[in-house]
Amino acid sequence: MSTEWKKNRDSSRPQGKRPEAARRPGGKKFSATNRPATAEDLRAGDQIVVTIKRIGINGEGVGYYKRKAVFIDGTLPEEVVKATVTKVEPSYMTARLDEVEKASPHRQKPPCPVYDSCGGCQLQHMTYEAQLRAKEELVREAFRRYAGMEAAPIRPILGMNNPWSYRNKAQLQLGRTGEQVVAGLYSPGTHKLVDITGCAIHDPAINRVTETVAKLLGELDIPVYNERTRQGVVRTIVARVGRQSGEIQLTLITAADRIPDRERLVRRIRDELPQVTTIAQNLNREASPLIFGAKTTVLWGKERLDETLGDVRFSLSPRAFFQLNPEQTVKLYDAVREAAALTGEELVVDAYCGTGTIGLWLAPHAREVRGIELIPEAVDDARDNARASGAANARFFVGRAEQLLPEWVQRGIRPDVVVVDPPRTGCERPLLLALAEAKPARLVYVSCNPSTLAKDCLVLLGQGYRLDWIQPVDMFPQTAHVECVIGMQRIDT
Ligand code: SAH
Fold it and tell me: Which residue ranges make up each domain of the chain?
C-alpha cells in the first residue's frame, strides 16, 4: 500500500455525532452514531462505515475516517461501505470490504471469473467509462498535490474502443493440479497459482498458445517446475504475438538445460499451433523473481518476431522489450510527436529510450536522434530496430541519462527537443539540472507515475519551462495504471 496519500485534504469526511473514546474492545462495530473519538483509537478488526471519495494509485477506494485516509480495495467513489480495519498506520489505514451499503451507479459485476484472486486487474468492478474518469482524476490529484496546480491543463484521457484483448504478450507460470498442467499467475503475496485460462485482456491468439502448450506438457508428461521443491523443468510460458505479422513467438523458460521429450514437444506444438513461428528455450536456474535467464536458444523457427508500429519496423528477440498494448502505444507516441513539434531540423535526445521506440517514431521528422539507455541489451535492440526501420539518423548510447546528457552539453551538443520516459521513480535530479543547462526549446515527458511526473514538472517549471498540456493515455484498461505525456516549452532562452 502506498504511503503517498499522507495528508487528509478532504473536509467532507463523515462526522460522528456521539464520539466515544473510552472502553473499546477489539473487533467492535462503529456506525455513524457509535464511533470512537479519533481514528487513532481504531484497531485491526474494528468495523467502520466509510464514504469513498476517489480511486487511489493502486486502484483501491480512498475514503476518510475521522480525517484519516482509509484504503479499501474493491470500492468505488461515492459508495458507502462497511469495512474491517486491517492495518492502522500513523498516516493512513487499510480495511477490507465487508458490505457495500450504497453502491455506485458505475459498479459492475467483474466479467472475469478469477478477478478477485488473480490480482492482475484492479478496476474490473467499475464500468470502463468510470475507469477513464477515475484515471483523469488520479492525474488531476497528483498535479494538485505535488505541483500545487489546482487546474492543471489535462486533456481528456485517450481510452480504447474495446478495452479487452489488448495485451500482445502473456507470461504465465506453470503448476500442476493432479494430472493437469495449469498456466497462470500467482495470487499477490501467495504461492497460489491462479489458472487464468481465457484471460480477457490477453489477445485470444496468445491464450490459445499458452493453453495448448500447458495441455501438451501434461500429455507428454514433461515435468513442470515446482517453486517450493525447486524440482522440475519448465517454469514459465511466454507467448508474444506480432499484431501486424500475426506471428507468435513462444519461449519456454526452464530451470534445467534439457527438456525431456523435447523433439516430440516441438513437433506437437508445430502441428497444433501453426501461427507459432519461433519456439525458443530460455534457461533460468535462479530462484529469483526475474522471468528470463541469460541464455536463449531457438529450438525451432525464426530468431526474431517481426512487428510494425506505424511506419516503424521491429525485429524482436525473445527477451527484447516491446510495448504491451500496440494500439494505445501509437496514441501515446503520436502525443509525443505532437509535443516535439518537429520540422526536420532538430536534434532530439530520447532519454531512457529502452529499445528506441520513441526515438524511431520521431526519427523521420528530425535531423538527428540520440537515444540514451542504461541496459546494453536494450541498446542492441534499439540499434537492430533502427536498422530494420532504415533510420540512419538515429544513434543509441549505453549510459545513464543523468551522466551522458550533461557530458554532451559540456561538449557543446545542444538538443532542440528532449524526450524523457523514466521508470516510476521519475528523473534523477542531475538530469533535471542538465536540462536547465541544455535549454532545449521543447521538453516531452512520458510517465507511468503521475506523482513523480508532477514533482519533476514542478522543478522544470522553476527552470524556465512552461507546461502546455498533459495527455493521459489508457495503456492498461481494467488496471489502475495511467500513462501521461506532457508537453513543455522553454520560455526564457
Ligand atoms: N521509452 C521506452 C521505454 C522506457 S522504460 C519505450 O517507450 O519503449 C524506462 C527505461 O529507462 C528502461 O529501459 C530502463 O532500463 C531505463 N533506465 C532506467 N534508469 C535509467 C537511467 N538512469 N538512464 C538511462 N536509462 C535508464
Answer: 22-107, 169-309, 325-490
**Element at 93 (helix H, strand E):** strand 92-102
What are the tens digits of pLDDT across the range 292-309? 998 999 999 999 999 999
Tell which one of 168, 319, 334, 352 to mutate to probe ligand 1, the residue whose CB is within 8 A of the most ligand atoms.
Answer: 352
Q: How does pLDDT run across 397-417, given as a tens digit for each residue?
A: 999 999 999 999 999 999 999
- Domain 169-309 class, CATH top level: mainly beta
Is 325-490 a CATH 3.40.30.10 domain? no
Nearest 5 degrees, angle CA 86-CA 448-CA 291?
Answer: 75
Q: Which atom of ligand 1 is nearest to the CA of 355?
A: 8
State the chain's mean pLDDT as an integer.
Answer: 91
352 lines ligand 1 (CB under 6 A): yes
249 is an annotated ligand-binding site residue: no
Pick 22-107's CATH classification: 1.25.40.10, 2.40.50.140, 2.120.10.30, 2.40.10.10. 2.40.50.140
Cell of 87: 492495518
Q: How far apart are CA 195 and CA 215, in angstroms?
A: 13
Asked if residue 374 has its Cβ within 6 Å of ligand 1, the reply is: yes
Cα–Cα distance for residue pair 43/33, rounded to 1 Å? 18
Q: In angstroms, rounded to a whole number, what is the distance separating the alpha carbons of residues 180 and 446?
A: 43
Which of 121, 448, 457, 484 is the catalytic position?
448
Question: Any idea what DSSP says for residue 489?
Answer: E
The terminus-to-terminus CA distance of the chain in angstroms comes to 42
Helix, strand, coil % in the chain, rounded to nearest 5: 25, 30, 45
Tens-digit pLDDT profile for residues 204-262: 999 999 999 999 999 999 999 988 888 999 999 999 999 988 999 999 999 999 999 99
Q: Do 22-107 and 169-309 share a fold?
A: yes
The distance of Cα 209 from the centroid of its chain, to the nearest Å, equals 23
Inform me whether the pLDDT recorded for 173 exceeds 50.
Answer: yes
- CB neighbours (10 Å) of residue 99? 10
C-alpha of residue 427 to centroid of ligand 1, in Å: 10
**Secondary structure class of 71 (helix, strand, coil):** strand
Closest ligand 1 atom to Cα of 431 = 22
| Cα 453 to chain centroid, rounded | 15
Does ligand 1 have an atom closer than 6 angstroms to the CB of 473?
A: no
Residue to mutate (ligand 1; options 337, 369, 373; most atoms within 8 A of CB): 373
For ligand 1, the distance from its centroid to the CA atom of residue 280, given in whole angstroms, is 26
Active site includes 484? Answer: no
* Residues 25, 43: Cα–Cα separation, whole Å: 9
